[in-house]
Amino acid sequence: MDAASYSYTEHGFKTAMAALKNESEAAWEWLSKIPKHTWARHAMDMNCKTDLVVNNLSEVFNKWVLDVRAKPIRTMVDGIMTKLMVKFNANRTKTETVRWEICPTYAEKLEEAKKFARNCHALMAGPNLYQVTSWETTYAVNLQHRTCGCKKWDMTAVPCNNAISAIHKAKLQPEDFVHDFFKKKKMYLTAYSPIIYPVPGPDMWPRTDSMDIEAPVFKEHKGRAQTKRRKGQYEKPAPKDTSRMASITCSNCKKVGHRYTNCNVALNPSLAMRKNRHEPSSSSYELDAATPARRASSAAGAAATAPSPAQRASSSSATAPGPAKKRAPSASATTPGPPKKRASSASATAPGPPKKRATFAAPAQRTTTGSSS
């Protein structure tokens, strides 16, 4: 069922429905009774520029107004108006500082398509018409009408991997083929340019001659009011959280314990752009798929700077080394003489007679007076 619902082409839809019929004919009969444009991607309207099959957009809005949707009608409308007023102003002022030109979500999709475009081979069949082969599939790409045989470019308005391969073959940039609906200057600013003006409270409302509208009578029912969505008969119940702290799983390597911002594995293109805050940068996949024009221009520049044959001949004659000249040796420098003995002084080397140590005589005894007399 999922293969039939998510197929972009009618051929893929019929193939998936045939496989479903072989597996369960009862399921095939039940699904065939539902109009295809309500659940099959290939039969949906392509003016919406989205390939969403599920109702995620309505679920997101439903959660956004969760705190005011159960209130009385006037309070609920005022609450939703206040939320929209703040949201419009935040998105309007955000565009003054951001550097991206394509909306972040679709810029990530474009980077992913650039990665898979390396496996495609494009051949030119005519003006703006290319045949693109990817593995075992082949599609026709028309750059003028911005269509591809896989129907993904037609539905999402963002070039697919087949279209990007043809765009590189035509020496153009994939960003120029993204629809204006997803660009900041063309549609994003226009969507949030209207200002939702504040509404004064009930104390500032003008009085009218008509009868005032009273609030509806509130009827209190037994039991607790139901706030959760009623699930379908075959819908699986949501798993209960056993703890308040959930384990963190990396969206890049799928391992537990860290986020993609701290991942040691090389990031995929969409996460790398998200980490770079969706700022425009040269993609590695664009460098891998360098156009022949760039190569030709670089070769022409190298040829312009290379010297001519005449210059090479003159430079070689000027720099060519001649016969090596022998240096005339000097006799005094090259002829070895007799070894010179180091002069040594006899007084310094010959030992002399040992010197006697000087002795002092004892002083004479002093005579007494009796002897003198």
UniProtKB/TrEMBL annotation:
Ranges of biased composition (kind: Low complexity): 289-335
Source organism: Triticum urartu
Compositional bias segments (type: Basic residues): 221-231
PANTHER family hit by this protein: MUTATOR TRANSPOSASE MUDRA PROTEIN (PTHR31973:SF187), POLYPROTEIN, PUTATIVE-RELATED (PTHR31973)
Residue spans crossing the bilayer: none
InterPro entries xrefs: Znf_PMZ
Compositionally biased tracts (Basic and acidic residues): 232-243
Protein name as catalogued: Zinc finger PMZ-type domain-containing protein
Domain Zinc finger PMZ-type as annotated: residue spans: 146-173
Region Disordered, residue ranges: 217-244, 274-373
GO molecular function annotation: zinc ion binding
